[in-house]
Write a structure and sequence with these properties.
Elements (H helix, E strand, L loop, with lengths): L2 H28 L7 H18 L21 E3 L9 E2 L2 H8 L4 E7 L2 E8 L2 E7 L5 E3 L2 H4 L15 E8 L2 H9 L11 H9 L4 H6 L3 E10 L8 H10 L7 E4 L4 H10 L8 E8 L2 H6 L10 E4 L6 E12 L4 E13 L2 E7 L3 H7 L6 E7 L3 E7 L19 E6 L2 E6 L5 H12 L11 H9 L16 H5 L6 H14 L1 E3 H7 L7 H10 L4 H5 L3 H5 L6 H12 L1 H11 L3 E3 L16 E4 L9 H10 L3 E3 L8 E3 L8 H9 L3 E2 L1 H8 L5
Parallel strand pairs: 2-11, 19-20, 21-22, 21-23, 23-24
Antiparallel strand pairs: 1-6, 3-9, 3-10, 4-5, 4-7, 7-8, 10-11, 12-13, 12-15, 13-14, 13-18, 15-16, 17-18
């Protein structure tokens, strides 16, 4: 092969790596999700760096040149006075010592949260801005005032600018997750929870999350003498009331012992961290070294040299969730890691499996990320992905591979899958539906798991299973009696609640009330309604009409509804001028761009349709509102809306509209 062909191949590999790493970076920093493991990201990053050195080709979009990615949010944005650079890193204590040389240093935790810049004027907290992409961040001042430990007032009256990490402790993370009954809705790790909490549009939610702030850098405090010492700065900040990141004063000779001490404290440390940071105590010396395009030279990060063990992958276990997603879990021959026996590690999705070419019988190396979470580091034999199940492990239904946001995952296609049905039963028992007190998602999961509930009507015959339920863990006679009484009470209900409880796609309680009112509570007429008649109802568009018709074309659904209605006493609904009146009746919306408050644009569309609105693809003269968090962008939809005089709403403005505030 000619040299030019080899070079072309390497350049093409560079392009491929840049694309993969940028996608992973966007997912991690902007969307708080992972599409590849930390190890895989570091491995690809190092490969890219080496190829750039070999070829001399560096793309403008390369993550080796860019500090971060653009922020996707409706929060106000502000540029930082000076770029907030990421840190160069090493896993070698010897390299740390060599870097420190004959200087004194401060060794501290590298906290795993969200970096924040605080500004104080006249002794009062004036402003808080997130790191964002390093050049520009989001203004979250009101949320910072709701942090557990941020001083709102300090004794120093000059302008103070400092940086620190907002974090949520492991104990608070567990507490918050335990309060979320829906397992699929729980947060993956403290960092993701912290990121969402810090960037909330409602600071009351931030206050509930117990976010803490730990200072790690003083940027400016004019008129204060620090004797050229970072340690003195930390001490001064403590005196002003700030919690400062835990640190130790070190020399090159004392580094191994200090690193060992931090390592030994990981298990009992309640504050998430992903390594250590070493910085020069001598401020002037550190500043004199300047910086590279990507890294400052006055500090360096230390990542734990993970304990690796080689083992054999026995098989991939597929675990179905309530959303239909089927997650792969690697099960391997047990090994000892960081003092515990490990035999399983999540692989997250098929894309990661393919990147590792992972197959049963392969020899793999495993480690604990940050000495806590088991991960596969490398596949030594790479036999290839195979045996992806064609049937769901829970219901035996057909599976399919879907690509969502550039990530391939396995899904169960059976709408009646037991793993999925828990969701539908949870909606059925919820407050706005049948409102069955005490029938939580966790309880439903137990009852469905042992075969006590197969369809909605079974809930009203739990008395047939008294012996089984009373003997269940967490239950007793009183709990059983209360549950049976709650089901009996719920059986006396309204037709609109019943319609909503069926979980027909997009049919919220407001839509259900309008449908019932239009058909004068004639359920037989409702279930046999055609598309033309349904779309005559204010707030019911073609999407909702199609969902309604599809639901009642399924004979199994009709049988389920018939069984349910036989258990209920339908009350006459009280007529009220406001009852059933949807907020967005007759309004047309267009949604574009990324969303922050909602899981995705589909969820936002469902909220609009539940309030009687319609969501269309294009901006026309019939459009009432365009929703776009980047209200000032020059996109084609924004331009069209401005030409037609159509208001452009951020999500925050939309929520105000939803809550009744006029726009």
């Amino acid at each position: 092969m000619e040299e030019k062909d080899i070079l072309a191949g390497k350049v093409e590999r560079i392009r491929s790596l840049v694309e993969m790493l940028r996608a992973a970076g966007r997912a991690y920093y902007q969307e708080s999700r992972e599409i590849m493991s930390n190890y895989e990201y570091d491995r690809l990053y190092d490969e890219l760096l080496e190829l750039e050195k070999e070829t001399g080709v560096v793309l403008a979009s390369s993550p080796t040149q860019n500090v971060g990615y653009e922020v996707v949010s409706s929060l106000p944005k502000e540029r930082h006075e000076s770029p907030m650079l990421s840190l160069n890193k090493t896993k070698s204590v010897d390299e740390l010592a060599e870097w420190l040389g004959d200087q004194k240093g401060l060794l501290s935790w590298k906290l795993d949260g969200l970096t924040i810049v605080l500004t104080y004027e006249d002794g009062m907290l004036k402003k808080a801005v997130t790191r964002g992409n390093g050049e520009e961040g989001e203004v979250i001042t009101n949320n910072a005032k709701a942090f557990v430990n941020v001083p709102l007032q300090i004794s120093y009256k000059g302008e103070l600018v400092l940086r620190g990490e907002a974090v949520i402790t492991y104990s608070d993370f567990r507490r918050i997750n335990e309060e979320i009954e829906d397992v699929d809705a729980r947060y993956k790790n403290p960092r993701n929870l912290c990121s969402g909490s810090v960037r909330q549009l409602n600071s009351a939610i931030t206050a509930q999350r117990n976010v803490r702030f730990y200072a790690f850098s003083l940027v400016r405090a004019e008129g204060v003498e620090f004797n050229n010492s970072r340690k003195r700065q930390f001490e001064w900040l403590s005196g002003q009331g700030f919690d400062v990141v835990e640190y130790r004063e070190v020399t090159a000779a004392g580094l191994p012992e200090a690193v060992k001490a931090f390592s030994g404290a990981i298990d009992k440390n309640d504050t998430p961290s992903d390594g250590l940071v070493l910085l020069y105590d001598d401020i002037a010396y550190g500043q004199s070294l300047g910086r590279t395009a990507k890294f400052p030279r006055d500090s360096i990060a230390f990542k734990w040299a993970d304990e690796l063990q080689e083992t054999t992958l026995k098989y991939i276990e597929w675990s179905a969730s309530r959303t239909g997603l089927i997650n792969p879990v690697a099960v391997f021959e047990p090994v000892e890691l960081e003092g515990t026996t490990v035999s399983r590690a999540s692989v997250h999705n098929i894309s990661i499996m393919e990147s590792l070419e992972l197959g049963a019988g392969d020899r793999i190396t495993v480690y604990k990320a940050n000495m806590i979470i088991p991960q596969i580091e490398e596949n030594l034999t790479r036999s290839g992905v195979r045996d992806i199940p064609k049937e769901c492990p829970v219901c035996g239904g057909r599976t399919e591979i879907r690509s969502v946001n550039e990530v391939k995952s396995l899904y169960c296609t059976n709408p009646d899958c037991q793993a999925k049905r828990i969701k539908s039963f949870t909606l059925f028992a919820s407050r706005d539906a049948l409102n069955i007190a005490g029938l939580s998602e966790a309880t439903l999961e137990k009852f469905i798991g042992v075969g006590l509930i197969h369809e909605y009507a079974d809930i009203f015959h739990l008395d047939r299973h008294e012996d089984v339920i009373v003997s269940m863990d967490g239950f007793g006679q009183k709990s059983f009696d209360n549950l049976v009484a709650a089901a009996k009470k719920a059986s006396d209900t309204t037709l609109s609640r019943v319609v909503y409880s069926l979980g027909i796609a997009g049919i919220g309680l407001a839509n259900a009330k309008m449908i019932c009112r239009h058909f004068k509570n004639d359920f037989e007429a409702m279930r046999h309604a055609g598309k033309d008649e349904l779309t005559e109802i204010d707030g019911i568009g073609e999407v909702l009409a199609d969902a309604w018709i599809d639901f009642f074309l399924d004979e199994k659904n009709n049988l389920t509804v018939d069984h349910l209605l036989a258990e209920l006493h339908i009350q006459a609904e009280t007529e009220d001028d406001d009852q059933g009146k949807a907020r967005f009746a007759g309004m047309n919306f267009v949604v574009t761009g990324s969303v922050e408050h909602f899981k995705n644009r589909k969820e936002l569309q469902e909220v609009i349709e539940a309030q009687g609105g319609k969501v269309t693809a294009s901006v026309t003269s019939k459009t009432n509102y365009l929703i776009n968090n980047d209200v000032n962008s020059s996109s084609s939809k924004n331009k069209k809306a401005r030409e037609l005089g159509i208001p452009i709403l951020s999500e925050e403005a939309f929520l105000e509209l939803l809550n009744g505030e006029e726009q």
